[in-house]
Design goal:
It is found in: Nucleus. The chain has helices at 13-22, 35-38, 58-62, 77-86, 100-110, 113-122, 132-144; strands at 29-30, 43-46, 54-57, 148-150, 155-157. The chain is an alpha+beta fold. Helix 4 (77-86) crosses helix 5.
């Protein structure tokens, strides 16, 4: 019989899998969760049916140029994270009327959270909850700083 190694995530499976992928403990994360982009998972396989799926490489996303619907030229990983959060994620629902294309446009124009959040606050076309800026920053911290289990050293790491 085959031995299957497994890990129980101390908090959330998404952050655990992302850590293991970034540390090259696993080769690919199979998931339907687009938050893998925000977690900077290098390689995610979506739509797995037991025999095949669609693999998305983070480096391919970040290198999408002007020929693509979302031109990611000049985007940093911080900007990608801001775009993912703004479009709606597990830690913060999307603002009404802002999907991935609008989030991309706003992040491209404002380059990062401080200017982006200020622009949202004063935009007449969107209704942003009073706590949105604080909640946005909390989402950023949640994506970046979840504690996970490192199976190589058998302990929790930041």
């Amino acid at each position: 019989s085959k031995q299957v190694r497994w890990v129980v995530a101390p908090y959330e499976a998404d952050s655990q899998l992302a850590y293991m992928a970034r540390e090259k403990i696993v080769d690919v994360v199979i998931s339907e969760d687009s938050d893998n982009l925000a977690f900077l998972v290098p390689r995610t396989m979506f739509k797995w049916d037991g025999t095949q799926g669609q693999t998305v490489l983070l480096e391919d996303v970040l290198s999408m140029g002007p020929d693509n619907e979302l031109n990611m030229e000049g985007f940093t990983t911080d900007m990608l994270l801001a775009m993912c959060i703004l479009a709606g994620c597990d830690y913060l629902p999307q603002v009404n009327g802002i999907g991935i294309k609008k989030a991309h446009e706003l992040v491209s124009r404002h380059r990062g959270p401080p200017r982006l959040l200020r622009a949202l606050r004063y935009a007449k076309a969107t209704s942003v909850p009073v706590t949105y800026e604080k909640d946005f920053q909390r989402a950023v911290l949640t994506f970046r700083h979840q504690r996970v289990f490192d199976p190589r050293i058998q302990r929790l790491v930041p």
